[in-house]
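User: Structure tokens for both sequences below?

Assistant:
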Amino acid sequence: MLNVSGLNQYYGQSHTLWDIDLEITPGECTCLMGRNGVGKTTLLNCIMGELAIESGEIIYQENALHKMRMEQRARSGIGYVPQGRQIFPLLTVEENLKIGLSARADKLRHVPDFIYELFPVLKEMRQRRGGDLSGGQQQQLAIGRALVLDPKMLILDEPTEGIQPNIVAEIGDVIRKLNREIGLTVLLVEQKLPFVRKVADRFYILDRGRRVANGKIDELNEELVKEYLTV
């Protein structure tokens, strides 16, 4: 579904991503892992068009994603939940969700019922401002907003960061349901190993801007954890 090949990216004179190859299989959940500062968020920003790439290709469903504008990438069927959530604090929950409708191909003008079924708290609080929600509720809102556009692929950057454990568990259950029952392809950046082992089918590990390991989730052994993931 998504293939990244030979991707290089620079910040000024600093070479941040080195010849990255990545393949995301349809219907699977893939986790991008690594210590802080190794290039995980940078890679997601390249995929979504927030950062330009120096060389390489990003192919999504046989289309050259790296040649598209940011808004075209969303309309191509990719839902993105950035690190920090980036909801609109002065808009209501419902208004935040409706923002995603503009990228839908079917021109739907109301929030689909299944969003509120996945996250009942959003239905209860749909007239409250986004900035009044807790961190965990804001994360659910950010995921719901990405799902409103009816994506074929969902990308999440550290969805459990700073979230209370009960909401982390709920988000894990939602990801599993979307991925394994509905068949939504998922790519996420995550560092919590129990969460990764619960939701992911495959993993990639970055270190100093390079891909250093990948495989099925049951191949994520203690040697890799100690060498590349343990702080």
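Moving on to the next sequence.
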Amino acid sequence: MKKEDKTLMIEKIKETVAQYSVLYLTETTSLNAEKTTELRRAAFKNDVKMMVVKNTLLKKALEQLDIDYSGLYGALAGSTTLMLSNTVNAPAKLIKEFRGRKETIPALKAAYAEETFFVGDDQLNVLAAFKSKNELIADVIALLQAPAQRVIGALQNKDGEGEGEAAPEANPEA
């Protein structure tokens, strides 16, 4: 590959990575063409960008970005498939779902999410357990609604308790 071509590829990788807040390095070489196509379709459906990159070009691109990705450099060996997303747990859930119960591919080599490095396939469950922004918003809304729902429920119970009976009047003299 010519130097100009390498420079263009580095620039393209850099621009693509800069658009996402979450970066996963995975190993997918043992997947056949059919499984690879299936993984790409699932990634597209889950808003995960997937790219096969050369390690040296990826490292040079990462070095040129504002974020320090040096924690990922040790995982840049062998074949690397890059998975990019703006949802922390989307690639992890995709990998787990794709693997099913028997497969070990795609394997997580390393990830950068929430300003933290996760190295090794054993970190996949940790990453999958992260809540996405939408999940956190739903939790906050549910927490905010809970007190109002309890008040409404209490009022409805109070109104329903005394049906058919006269409510005791307050006696100011008593």
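User: Anything stand out in the second?

Assistant: Residues 71 and 116 are 9 Å apart (CA to CA).
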